[in-house]
Specification:
Number of helices: 9
Largest sheet: none
CATH superfamily: MetI-like
Strand content: under 5%
Structural class: mainly alpha
CATH topology: MetI-like fold
Number of strands: 0
Distance between the termini: 31 Å
CATH class: Mainly Alpha
CATH architecture: Orthogonal Bundle
Oligomer: single chain
Number of domains: 1
């Protein structure tokens, strides 16, 4: 089971995006095949704004959930057993042990996983570029796509540099907020 949960992290973003581009294809994709076999109208997943956003979000979640799983699995395996055994002796239910013991002890690992996921989500480029190139109508456009367009399509080095500084500042601000939250609150 662990192998299945970790498998997505082993694929490169480019390969993941190409496979999902085939899955979301409006005429030959498996998703539209299932939809049409259920008697519904197929959806142009990568050509209309809201379905394109949903498709890109699904790909990103599928590809990066394995990282969060690994961080939390490592943290769970390092938790001491004695607080759980003491709570069980005192009559605490499984839900109470999870809520009042495990979650507070996992808080640093959860914040680290959240920090990395936020940084990765802000910087995402490969999957969006392959799937939609930031379209349709800017529905899946990120600052990384804007930076690419500024540098390599419009040849505006100054604009690309400014966008990269904004990206750095945004990433740094969010990281600072999460790290501050980690060290200022008591579990």
């Amino acid at each position: 089971m662990r192998t299945l949960l970790v498998a997505p992290i082993m694929a490169t973003p480019l390969v993941v995006a190409l496979v999902f581009k085939l899955i979301w294809h409006s005429q030959f994709g498996i998703v539209n095949y299932v939809i049409s076999s259920l008697g519904m109208v197929p959806v142009a997943w990568l050509a209309t704004p809201i379905p394109a956003f949903i498709a890109v979000l699904t790909v990103d979640i599928w590809h990066n959930t394995a990282f969060v799983f690994l961080v939390l699995l490592g943290a769970l395996q390092m938790l001491p057993r004695s607080p759980f055994e003491a709570a069980q002796v005192e009559g605490a239910s499984w839900l109470q042990r999870a809520r009042y013991i495990a979650l507070p002890m996992l808080r640093p690992a959860i914040l680290v996983a959240l920090l990395f996921r936020v940084v990765f989500a802000i910087r995402v480029f490969d999957e969006i570029f392959v799937l939609t190139r930031g379209g349709p109508n800017g529905a899946t456009e990120t600052i990384s796509i804007l930076l690419y367009r500024s540098a390599f399509e419009h040849f505006d080095a100054a604009g690309a540099a400014a966008l990269s500084i904004i990206l750095l500042g945004l990433t740094g601000l969010l990281a600072w907020l999460l790290i501050r939250n980690l060290y200022t609150r008591k579990p």
